[in-house]
TrEMBL record:
<dbReference type="Pfam" id="PF13614">
    <property type="entry name" value="AAA_31"/>
</dbReference>
<dbReference type="InterPro" id="IPR027417">
    <property type="entry name" value="P-loop_NTPase"/>
</dbReference>
<feature type="domain" description="AAA">
    <location>
        <begin position="11"/>
        <end position="190"/>
    </location>
</feature>
<dbReference type="InterPro" id="IPR050678">
    <property type="entry name" value="DNA_Partitioning_ATPase"/>
</dbReference>
<protein>
    <submittedName>
        <fullName>AAA family ATPase</fullName>
    </submittedName>
</protein>
<dbReference type="InterPro" id="IPR025669">
    <property type="entry name" value="AAA_dom"/>
</dbReference>
Amino acid sequence: AGQLPKPPRRRVITVANQKGGVGKTTTTVNIAAGLALHGIRVLVVDLDPQGNASTALGIDHRAAGIDSVYELLLGEANLTEATQKCPSQENLYCIPATLDLAGAEIELVSLVARENRLRNALDDARLDALGIDYVLIDCPPSLGLLTVNAMVAANEVLIPIQCEYYALEGVGQLLRNIELVQAHLNPHLHVSTILLTMYDGRTKLADQVAEEVRRHFGPKVLNTIIPRSVKVSEAPGYGMTIIEYDPGSRGAMSYLDAAREIAERAFAITRTR
Ligand code: ADP
Ligand code: MG
């Protein structure tokens, strides 16, 4: 596998869309795996109490006594303690989520700097020590305090949009929330990337949605579109990304292409500045 360019500065990307089932988790783990395969070192932060990203990366997040993102947010563990190496792929790391995290949304409310807990925990010295080039944060399907923490910790937002009915439903609200975070908590935050997912080429609707999203977001939309494929949905059941589960499949190829676009775009942007 050829190498992809490492970013001149670490990129912290939040994968958000408050609709459930649009492909946030699938996108987070497979983009991470696609980057990692090409020599880029990636940390996935699983911020969804369901822990689906942890499962897909083969991390045991049900074991008693592990340090997870919950302990990290509450200040009971540091980044080094909460980070695990993914068992089956080089360059890939994960801070897993446990079911405790479901309570964190409420427990965080009474803590100091409640919106900044994740940002503060993503300690630069510790990330440097691990050699992390990208941090990808998988958000829960809501706009609560966990998602706000993700937006405060990140510079970029990646929004996966499903090529289905009502694809843009809720995206307006997401964008308003991003603006609020920009205005009050994190001026660096911006939507850098839109990825169309679960595309079914047999339907006219999928093309219409893709066209509408491109009209709306222009060049932020990746050229690569992720097709709907049964294999993509099977992989997490084996604790694998699609890139490990079936490297030659259309799903794997499209996520590899999307990862390449993300890595090369950042390179192009920083070079022309
Ligand atoms: P979210 O994190 O936004 O809730 P997921 O990534 O968990 O969404 O995806 C929702 C469901 O759709 C999961 O069962 C997942 O396996 C499946 N899925 C995601 N992407 C694809 C795809 N390209 N083709 C087929 N199934 C997919
Ligand atoms: Mg999810």
